[in-house]
Amino acid sequence: NLDKINMVIQTDQRKAKINKNIYGHFAEHLGRCIYEGIWVGKDSPIPNTEGIRNDVIQALKAINIPVLRWPGGCFADEYHWKDGIGPYEERPGMVNTHWGGYVENNHFGTHEFLMLCELIGTEPYICGNVGSGTVLEMQQWVEYMTYDGKSPMADLRRKHGRDEPWKIPYFGVGNENWSCGGNMRPEYYANEFRKYATYVKNYGENQLYKIACGPSDADYTWTEVVMKLAGKHMDGLSMHHYSMSEGNTLPNSATQFEPADWFTTLKQAWFMEELIRKHSAIMDEYDPDKRVGLIVDEWGTWFDVEPGTHPRFLFQQNTLRDALVAGINLNLFNNHCDRIQMANIAQTVNVLQAIILTEGEKMILTPTYHVFDMFKVHQGAELLLVDFSNQEYRFEDEKLPQLSVSSSIDAENKLHLTLCNLHHNESIEISCEIEDFQPAGVMGTLLTASALNAHNTFEQPEAIKPVDFQGAVLNDGKLSLILPPASILLLTLEGS
Ligand code: AHR
């Protein structure tokens, strides 16, 4: 007696193009993300390219990361870029006050970050310092990176070994300026944004997409005020929302949890839908043509750090539950791609909902990495309308939709369907009609496990990984399948 869902995909209803940047990432100078996780230095015994780990380069390239945000986070509003250029022995150290108070040596700076982007084929999204920096400092950073001809900053860049300017498509004017980025009120930030953004210039052919600091979670007042006072001056407005397992039965552990914690974490993930809808509605008042993108540049799970690790290094394990959170969010971003123009999961390596974990020379891929690998087919494809009435996932007195889904069609006429069954122990039967599309065949990839807390470790790096799924059947062009509990499925149908 399985619950059954009948769905219809309408291939003639192409809603919008899914911006590839929805599949973006975020790497901050926090804990072991940059140092150890990405940067080991040229003299390290760990195989590297100019100081950047080769295993991490390969893993990041494989999932087509479109955009990478750096250097923070809270770190961005205390980062002074000039300390991170020039000969290593001459770079001054700095105290990372937000993340553990340790002194970092500034060896990973502008040149190293932009080299990383080149090595993995990704576009940089740089976040500038509004909290403790100056307008001049921000202006000079942009000049340093993008000025083509002769100028004081371009000449300094050349002196440090880079002749050609870099292409910098995305620039954030501050981070969380309502908190770690200066504890500002929205009216004050809106004015600061207008002032700083004025001096963030386009040099030569470089066109900057300027992103303003947006709200935390359900702070609708922030969105209202900043859109009203500064909406015309920005290209994007950022928003942050983390999924935590609040009100849980155990400490907020990444790996030791009960079905109740599973449910509350997924509920937090699904809350993203309400946030997108409500913030978008406010943006619609000031920007009805949807010129300004909603940029979810921090999202993911936030649990207790692993026992014995530094409390401010935010190092957590990553289980099947994280994979579901990733699948739910990515489906939501796809489905709202008329307004969501970028999203950046926090964070790439060794921090929060990491896609990669490292320990010395060892590296493992987390279940979240596999979700990004599966969902990458949606990058740049056209979103399709999926019509269905959802089943309820009930837990005690609460309920959630049981199925998360999005579908797209790409330039090669391949139709992709990504489905997540949120229920911790019940399957769903799915039957799906596809209008105006003759499928020649179907291929499936499934990510699930028998334990909700299944995760990869350095001893067992492949405890959870995607497998081929043969359970989708095509009959007269109609698709049917049973989606196991706690699972994520990618189906690809080739048009005949
Ligand atoms: O991602 C960790 C931190 O979370 C970021 O530095 C900050 O922007 C947010 O509060």
Radius of gyration equals 22 Å
**Ligand inventory:** alpha-L-arabinofuranose
Secondary-structure-based class equals alpha/beta
Q: Kindly report the CATH topology of the largest domain.
A: TIM Barrel
Annotation field: number of helices: 9
> Roughly how much helix do the residues carry, as a percent range?
10-25%
In spatial order, strands of the major sheet run: 23-22-26-20-19-16-1-21-25-24
The profile of the biggest β sheet is:
10 strands, mixed
Total number of strands: 26
The 3D shape can be described as globular
How do the strands and helices of this protein lay out in sequence?
Layout: E1 3-17, E2 24-26, E3 48-49, E4 52-53, H1 54-62, E5 67-70, E6 94-95, E7 103-104, H2 110-120, E8 123-128, H3 135-146, H4 152-159, E9 170-173, H5 186-199, E10 209-212, H6 220-230, E11 236-243, H7 259-286, E12 293-301, H8 320-335, E13 340-346, E14 356-359, E15 362-365, H9 367-375, E16 382-388, E17 392-395, E18 398-401, E19 403-409, E20 414-421, E21 428-435, E22 439-447, E23 467-469, E24 473-475, E25 478-483, E26 487-495
Helix pairs in contact: 3-4, 5-6, 6-7, 7-8, 8-9
The protein binds alpha-L-arabinofuranose.
The site of alpha-L-arabinofuranose (AHR) has 10 residues, from loops.
